[in-house]
Amino acid sequence: MTISLFITCYNDTLFPETGKATVILLERLGHTVEFRAAQTCCGQMHFNTGYVGDALSMMRSTLDVFATAEVICIPSSSCVAMMRDQYPHIAQSTGEPALINAVSRFLPKVFELSELLVDKLGITDVGAFFPHAVTLHPSCHSIRSLHIGNKPQELLKCVRGLTLIELPDARQCCGFGGTFSLKNPEVSAAMLSDKVQCVLETRAEFCTAIDNSCLMHIGGALSRQRTGVRTVHIAEILAATDAGAIQ
Amino acid sequence: MSIRVGEAAEAPEFPTAAKRLIQDSQIRRNVRHATDVIRGKRNRVVAELDDWEQLRASAHAIKEHTLRNLVRYLEQFEAACTNAGGEVHWAQDADEANQTIVGLIQAEKKSEVIKVKTMTSDEIGLNTALEAAGIIPSETDLADLIVQLGRDQPSHIVVPALHRNRAEIRQIFRREMNLPALSDDPEELAAAARAYLREKFLRVDIAISGANFVIAETGTVCVVESEGNGRMCLSLPQVLITLIGIEKIIPRFEDLEVFLQLLPRSATGERMNPYNSIWTGVSPGDGPQRFHVVLLDNGRTQVLADEVGRQTLDCIRCGACLNACPVYQQTGGHAYGSVYAGPIGAILTPQLQSMQHSQTLPYASSLCGACYEVCPAKINIPEVLLHLRSKVVENRDAPVYERVAMKIAALALKNADRLSAAQSVGRIAQKPFERDGVIANLPGFLRGWTAVRDLKPIPKQSFRQWWAERDQSK
Amino acid sequence: MSIAKQVILTRIRDALARSPQITYESCPREYRRASALDVRSRIELFEDRLRDYGSRVYHCSSDQIADSIALAMRNAGKTALVIPDGFPRTWLPDECTFTLDNGLSYQALDGAEGVLTGCAAAIAETGTIVLRHSGADGRRALTLLPDYHLCVVRQSQIVASVPEGIQAATEFATSPITTISGPSATSDIEMTRVKGVHGPRTLDVIITEP
């Protein structure tokens, strides 16, 4: 299967390792990965902050770039949520039938990485090896918008060497919320402090998620507090084998 | 027309208020404890009902249907209530409602009233208006009594005094009830309130209530409560004045079968609250013999005019979104500057009162969606928050730094070449701030981030550069 | 029509001018409206809920009601109760004192030991007693001011679920109705449940055949 990767703007810029891992993983599973270089951003940050016009331009461009793609893999549940929850409304608001159609053709092709693996490809054991204690932060968008259920856990449970430790109060938000963390930094920090406390309670070495946005937030505090706990995107765990663990 | 929501106009904006509250260890502990307890109870009793989602779907549909037919249902209610001996008054805004109520009390030649918990009266600032007219209002819900005697503001829709602990409540009661020997045992505190209020219940002859549900078909009003103070106010006085927001209406009596399942489980985590009082007009020889209803707009029709925002009027004031909200759990209700706190307050206050707080309250959420998940009326609160944010931007009310930053970001994300160029600029710009592989101290509006979090610097190679390199070497 | 009413209704019409109609019939009703519980299970569930609330529950046949009332009063330490005008006299035990509520003052009710009533319906799932405030139920103040409430519920009055309870109450929708689910309570102080703030602190129930 040819899988088109939508890497997302912040993974492209800040977390290239997640993109590389996604490519390596999908290729290892026998698929062809393509990367359409014209892609930029789904428009989430602008939309969530109220800049609908800018988000609309980004949506148009994303739809154009992926118009001919068969299957689109996105290693970020918040971007998938943006597309599924908001693209139809944004398109409706323009009243352009062509745009509305483009969105309805686009959405069925969109898969978050763990959805792609479990639902579309029907695989939970991807042959990964990751000899570490790991806890999973189920991001808000993944549970409340994508209704991802236990897919990430199922994938992690099949990883050899990995000990999955349940995160207490897992469904609580980490406090990132995009520009929320800048507009209300104190409240965001208080929420983050609760999340970090729960992560530390697990005594895991790694905190993982299917979203680097939450991980950037949680990881920022784990680093500042010198906890020695690292964050890692689930793609990087699933891409790791005994031939080459992550750095 | 002056639409007012409590003292919201004078209250500081959310980020400022929150910053202060975050440092109040006692409030945070009290709020955390209370929300944890209610949330746990709510989750247990909701899990008992395998048709919970179907009930939510029905509630949402009934409310949406009602709002679309609001004129018909309000007129139907008015006719049925009048027919049953009630008298219906209409009020466009807070001042008109207050004047009407003061007028009714003065016509009865009374100078004291007992009140049963009504958020709507807090919204219109009724107590202040009563006091200005020389009328003494006594709150009778225990939490409202604590708030009133403590000269405080409510911090939760259902449990207005949850920010207070027993020691504080003892202080307030000792002082205000003149009971120097009172202990901080909740039983003893509640008994003190019982004795203090019983005298008022037996003596004061006029009561003011709100309503949880108002039935168009029969002209019936329903008040949901736990303590019995509601029954006291609704049964004993000769005169009853009920203040009702126009959105409280439901079409038929049988619709109660939906809402009386959703409300108690969502609000207090009970299968059913101890008491529901359901009455229609006046019953000779039983209960108040003069019954007035004041139907209040105060901005509700303005909310109704907004196709996305109007679902806010589906709210049945259960408070479940407050208990579920991770932001509310940190700040408590006073940060929201309004009698309506939490996620529902963040969307209701800015819509009712279009001037104050509309720039900050829609942003007082991480958009985690926990509010929508628990809302018994299925109000998509994140959707309304996003809608209100777009209006802030549309009205050019967003801060300048943000507008500039978002414009630059939009330009950078316009196409792939610009994004690559922006990534290169970012790598250079971050240099002065990078220490030991992390960015720990950023200026300006980014300072809040690095105050408690490290930021990972932009790596040397972007994903797209890696891909291009790999493609070439193939 | 008052000016305020005119203005409000006009604003509503304007607000809805471009919105399509939604009919009442189109509202989904897929929740459970009836329950499959048989009489036995309904009684058991009702009793279970009442005990949860701290009520004492008594069972009796239709010819033992007076004995049950006497027993319940003895256990609660009561010798005299107020009864509404419509309460069946044949249910009253001779050994106790009963005062008829023929318009007693609030002070008199406040000073009474307790009150004995019937009810209009009961809901098992929530342990709810529904009063319609006529006949054996009494007026509203009667079951409110005294500190003790003893209620006689007939088995046939017990429905399983809230929708069935509301459907039963539709028959007397415009009478004053009070639903009682356990004793008066508050959790306003640190979420600690305290029984008996303003209403009766104790609610006991006699379930009688049929």
Q: What does this entry look like structurally?
A:
The complex is a heterotrimer of chains A (about 250), B (about 475) and C (about 210). Chain A has about 250 residues and is of the alpha/beta class. The mean pLDDT of chain A is about 95. In chain A, strands 2-1-3-4 form a four-stranded parallel beta sheet, with helices on both faces. A four-stranded parallel beta sheet of chain A has the order 6-5-7-8, sandwiched between helices. Helix content of chain A is about 50%, strand content about 10%. With about 475 residues, chain B is α/β, with parallel strands linked by helices. Chain B has 22 helices and twelve strands. Chain B folds into two domains: about 290 residues, Rossmann fold (3-Layer(aba) Sandwich), CATH 3.40.50.10420; about 70 residues, no CATH class. Chain C is α/β, with parallel strands linked by helices and about 210 residues long. Helix content of chain C is about 25%, strand content about 20%. Chain C has five helices and twelve strands. The longest helix of chain C has 14 residues. Chain C is globular, with a radius of gyration of 21 Å. Chains in contact: A-B, B-C. β9 of chain B pairs antiparallel with β9 of chain C, so a sheet runs across the interface.
Provide keyphrases for this structure.
heterotrimer; A: 247 residues; Glutathione S-transferase Yfyf (Class Pi), Chain A, domain 2; Rossmann fold; 2 domains; 4-stranded parallel β-sheet; 52% helix; B: 474 residues; alpha/beta; 22 helices; 11% strand; elongated
- Regions with little confidence, pLDDT below 50 for 5+ residues of chain C: none
Extended strand count of chain B: 12
Mean pLDDT value of chain C: 96
Query: Under CATH, the topology of the largest domain in chain B is which?
Result: Rossmann fold
How would you classify the helix and strand content of chain C by structural class?
A: alpha/beta
Low-pLDDT sequence parts of chain B: none
Distance between the termini of chain B: 72 Å
* Oligomer class: heterotrimer
Roughly how many Å is the radius of gyration of chain B? 26 Å
Q: Please indicate the percent range of residues of chain C in DSSP E strands (runs of 2 or more).
A: 15-25%
Largest sheet of chain B: 6 strands, parallel
| Ends distance of chain C | 53 Å
Helix percent of chain C reads: 25-40%
